[in-house]
Amino acid sequence: MLAPDSSFQKNFFFLAKRFVPGETIEAAVSTVRELNAKGLTVSLDYLGEDVLDRKAAIETTGRYLEILDALRDAGADSNVSLKLTAMGLLIDEDFALENLTRIAERARQNPDPFVRVDMEGSAVTSATLRVFERAFAVHKNVGIVLQAYLKRTAGDVARAIALGARVRLCKGAYNEPPDIAYASMPQIRENFLKLARQLLMRGNYPGIATHDRRLLAAVKEIVATESIPPERFEFQMLYGCRPQVQEQLVAQGYRVRVYAPFGTHWAGYFYRRVLERRENALFALSSMFSR
Ligand SMILES: Cc1cc2nc3c(=O)[nH]c(=O)nc-3n(C[C@H](O)[C@H](O)[C@H](O)COP(=O)(O)OP(=O)(O)OC[C@H]3O[C@@H](n4cnc5c(N)ncnc54)[C@H](O)[C@@H]3O)c2cc1C
Prior knowledge:
Bound molecules: flavin-adenine dinucleotide
Shape: globular
Strand order of the largest sheet: 1-2-3-4-5-6-7-8
Number of helices: 12
Radius of gyration: 18 Å
Oligomer: single chain
């Protein structure tokens, strides 16, 4: 991973700009305001992952407290998302829980007190769920992400429904081995829809996170046939991905939340977006020539 103060990071932020609205809290809050003006709610993520020293994890936790204060002061409609490996999960689960707890407690002072725990690679799935459940036992404003490509997720969805925990369902963004993850897109879509239906019918305000036209159409059909009102769930999309569709969904009466990551540690996130879609790589390349 590139260090945020490397010259690549400093000189090439323009490449990531489509997916990362800025490097500072001020830029992030101003993006939240712009999205709010279009009827979109937001979840801000302070970029960073795989932290291996306590000081860095404590600093990241402190940044989240600042972000929460800035959102509250600005009256901006946004909650926060975070990665537990940025909170020290790879160092010690109790330490990550302590940091998550500080954020969950501070978030209670905000109009939207919700804190979403992102899901990372399969090496930390079980640890992430353990820390999440320990936090959720005390702080009901904490929710989790589950990935439809993992074969274990049906069980994790059932558990989250039983707990009454809020779930964001996504396909999954990491490279996982075929013994634990569905490898073909039709299988991932099928599992996504099966789990989305369960969450929509019995879950607590699920976040349906996808840009996939087929999945969006199928989810709309489920909510129409099952008469699930639009305030019982939200669609979620990434900042910079299909912005017109985000606005169309709002115009159609759906709730839409944009996941907006910001900060200087954008390289890992940016690479995942580029690897995911050829169009994203082409967009990054075209930015190089249109400066
Ligand atoms: C809000 C949110 C939060 C997420 N959080 C996590 C997380 O915590 N952990 C994790 O592992 N992953 C996370 N992800 C990433 C997710 O797992 C997928 O990697 C990512 O969303 C790509 O899958 P997709 O279903 O959106 O569509 P894709 O599989 O990328 O695309 C499917 C189809 O959608 C259409 N499409 C998609 N993007 C575009 C575009 N830009 N322009 C035009 N058409 C497009 C195309 O028809 C395409 O064929 C998150 C995603 C979102 C939206």
